[in-house]
Amino acid sequence: MKDPGCWNQQYDKCRDILIDGVTVDAKSYWNNDGVDIVDCSDVVIRNCYFDAADDVYCFKSHSEDGVSENILVENCVGRSSANGIKFGTYTRGKFKHFRFKNITIFDTYRSAITIATVDGAQIEDVVIDSIRSIHTGNPIFLRTGTRHTNDNQKPYLKDITIKNMYAEVPFEKPDAGYGYEGPVEDLPRNVCPSIIAGIPDIRIENVKLENIHIVYPGNADPEYAYAGTSKEELNAIEEQETRYPEFSNWKELPAWGFYIRHADGIVFDNVTITVAGEDYRPAIVTDDVNGLRMKNLVIVDEHAPKGKKQIITKDTKNIRKK
Question: In 3-state terms, what secondary structure has residue 189?
């Protein structure tokens, strides 16, 4: 499939879909998603290659009674000038029982993984296993919000597992040179961390990060833009709960590895985060997080003499940090 006028392929309220061995070259227009699955059940996408100007694997819901469930994506490769795996943005109904296995994302402007509920959706039971993200602007972005919600909806984002992941984040623009690039920012920013950001009324619950290694470029310049970690400075970070969800919305965040806010039950198990260049920010910053557990967390500073390494082997439980 090549050069569509908009989304390359959309499956809406369908059951029993098999997409196998399909090649997509979708760079003729900025809104060229690779594949859109909308309120569908029992879907298998496997052995496919996507080169898209917009999101690669995109899961949406257009109605409050819509249900997307029993979705499997495996043995696929994708490149995008937006996101790799993307839940949203229009997310009204329920999403449950999603499995991703053996996925490669490369040269992708935004996040390798974006799971967002900002329109009232209920998202649960998502497992992403064996993902390789190379030259991607952001590895992990989990987000809740209230862009389009009403009083009848009870949105949530919970029970997410990401395991066996290797990711490299470049210092430069990851999709530079493609015909349809992601936007060139008028005001550049220091490289963002991975983000798990709920809002006070819609917290993110039960996220497990297991067997993960992420390499960040570092080189954040405090003289250009400084983000501090005092109580006052953390409180000053805007919630931005009604905005379209992008990891770059905040411009500057106070961590180089992970920024976690308004979340419960976050588990790090055998996670290594490496910073290649000097960075004034700490590796991980949490704000209003309950039940944070870290086991076998390794933080590597390659810029320090002989490569400074901090290993946290103790299983820390029930941490609440503000």
Answer: coil
Neighbouring C-beta atoms of residue 129, cutoff 10 Å: 17
Token couple for 228:
């501090």
Structure tokens at 188: 């550049």
pTM of the predicted protein model? 0.95
CA-to-CA distance for 163 and 157, rounded, in angstroms? 18
Q: Specify whether the CB–CB gap between 257 and 284 falls below 8 A.
A: yes
DSSP code string of 148-184:
T--TT---EEEEEEEEEEEEE--SS-TTTTSSSPPPP
Summarised one tens digit per residue, pLDDT across range 68-90 is: 999 999 999 999 999 999 999 89
The dihedral through the CA atoms of 222, 256, 215, 76 has a sign that is negative
Reading phi first (left if > 0) and then psi (alpha if -120 to 50, else beta), residue 256 is in: alpha
CA 186 – CA 189 distance, rounded (Å)? 10
Residue 249 DSSP SS3: helix
Which amino acid does the sequence have at 252? E
Residues in the chain: 322
- pLDDT given for residue 13 in this prediction: 97
- With a CB cutoff of 8 Å and minimum separation 6, the contacts of 55 are 33, 34, 80, 82, 83, 84, 86, 114
Question: What is the C-alpha to C-alpha distance for residues 114 and 105, in angstroms, rounded to an integer?
Answer: 12
Q: Which residues pair with 214 in a beta bridge?
A: 167, 273
Confidence of residue 307 (pLDDT cuts 50, 70, 90): low
Structure tokens at 305: 């003499």
Question: What's the CA gap between 43 and 61, in Å, rounded?
Answer: 15
H or E element that contains 293: strand 284-301
What does the DSSP 8-state code read for residue 2? B
Give dist(CA 298, CA 296) in Å, integer: 6
